[in-house]
């Protein structure tokens, strides 16, 4: 049976809304692991900038800051040593990446920055350097406080995750009432900020195949998740019941939903990276400060060849500006209402 409204799936992202006004406080930009592609994709982005050049502070090794400064004058914070070799990570490059994270996290708490855009880091090398967190999301939550949600936007799709960096076998027990409600709330924030949807249509993935098939393939949906969604539907009229994940992302792409809530990491990121690999952005929602990063890793094998696409990093900066502007406008509206 042919669908009534079928569209060809394209991989080119739709244009993102941009925030063109200068920021009250700059965004801090880290180099990531200096042996990865982070430094070069930031340099490629910096070469393309023509406005709001004072809205950024770069944090990384002296030689990287010098290369940026050769493109155009920068404000920089030196962290780490000169001399990282592209494609050859080690404890020193991991410590530099960690030092950058600590620097920008502290800078936000001091009021120096309005948000952070982080270039890719290596989780395994950070662990070798003593980093106790599964990823940057958990690091910033620990430093800043708050209840984070890992979310993604920047291309054709918007996705928010209920759980992320945990083993698959732990997912069912990790899905709690508070996490479901928090993720739906943050998904609505993401849709409103990036798409200006007043009442976002939020599609929620089921945990089991066919969203449980009325209990035949699992009871988590009808016994636990759907009652929670019904409870919060007065606040979020556009939130669905649990829907089969194997078709929900296509329905999102075809415009039926504005954002998808996925219950675990690969359920959301498999479809997302298939469609938006070069353009999607990792966004940490629910913290006191905005934090975004490219939705890809260090790509050590590509580092130094200048072949890596900067598109995801470019979108990371654009979305950071957009989210900061959205939060500032929301804060002003709150002050007026009070």
Average of the residue pLDDT scores:
91
The helix content, as a percent range, equals 40-55%
Which topology of the largest domain does CATH recognise? Isopropylmalate Dehydrogenase
Give the radius of gyration. Answer: 20 Å
Q: Strand tally, please?
A: 11
> What is the name of the CATH class of the largest domain?
Alpha Beta
Topology, element by element:
Layout: E1 27-30, H1 38-48, E2 56-60, H2 62-71, E3 76-78, H3 91-109, E4 115-117, H4 123-128, H5 136-144, E5 149-153, E6 159-161, H6 171-174, H7 177-195, E7 202-205, H8 220-232, E8 239-243, H9 245-253, E9 259-262, H10 265-276, E10 281-285, E11 290-294, H11 311-337
Parallel strand pairs: 1-2, 1-4, 2-3, 4-11, 6-9, 7-8, 7-9
Antiparallel strand pairs: 5-6, 5-10, 10-11
Helix pairs in contact: 1-2, 3-5
What does this structure look like?
The chain has about 350 residues and is of the alpha/beta class. The protein folds into two domains: about 180 residues, Isopropylmalate Dehydrogenase (3-Layer(aba) Sandwich), CATH 3.40.718.10; about 140 residues, Isopropylmalate Dehydrogenase. An eleven-stranded mixed β-sheet has the order 3-2-1-4-11-10-5-6-9-7-8, with helices on both faces. The longest helix has 27 residues.
């Amino acid at each position: 049976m042919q669908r009534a409204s079928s569209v060809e799936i394209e991989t080119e992202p739709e244009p993102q809304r941009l925030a063109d006004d200068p920021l009250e406080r700059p965004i801090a930009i880290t180099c990531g692991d200096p042996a990865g592609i982070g430094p070069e994709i930031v340099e490629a982005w910096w070469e393309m900038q023509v406005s709001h050049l004072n809205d950024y502070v770069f944090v990384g090794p002296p030689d990287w800051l010098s290369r940026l400064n050769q493109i155009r004058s920068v404000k920089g914070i030196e962290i780490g040593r000169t001399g990282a070799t592209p494609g050859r990570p080690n404890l020193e490059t991991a410590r530099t990446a960690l030092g950058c994270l600590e620097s920008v996290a502290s800078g936000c708490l001091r009021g120096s920055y309005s948000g952070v855009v982080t270039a890719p880091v290596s989780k395994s090398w950070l662990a070798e350097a003593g980093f106790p967190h599964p990823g940057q999301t958990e690091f910033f939550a620990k430093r800043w406080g708050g209840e984070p949600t890992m979310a993604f936007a920047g291309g054709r799709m918007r996705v928010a995750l209920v759980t992320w960096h945990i083993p698959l076998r732990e997912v069912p027990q990790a899905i709690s009432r508070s996490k479901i409600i928090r993720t739906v709330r943050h998904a609505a924030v993401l849709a409103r900020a990036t798409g200006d949807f007043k009442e976002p249509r939020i599609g929620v993935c089921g945990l089991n195949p066919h969203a449980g098939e009325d209990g035949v393939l699992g009871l988590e949906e009808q016994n636990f998740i759907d009652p929670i969604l019904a409870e919060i539907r007065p606040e979020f009229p556009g939130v669905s019941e649990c829907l089969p994940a194997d078709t929900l992302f296509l329905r999102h792409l075809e415009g039926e939903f504005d954002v998808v809530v996925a219950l675990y990491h690969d359920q959301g990121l498999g479809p997302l990276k298939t469609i938006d690999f070069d353009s999607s952005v990792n966004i940490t929602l629910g913290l006191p400060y905005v934090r975004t990063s490219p939705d890809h890793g260090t790509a050590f094998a590509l580092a130094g060849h200048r072949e890596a696409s900067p598109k995801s990093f470019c979108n990371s900066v654009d979305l950071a500006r957009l989210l900061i502007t959205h939060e500032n406008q929301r804060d002003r509206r709150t002050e007026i209402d009070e």
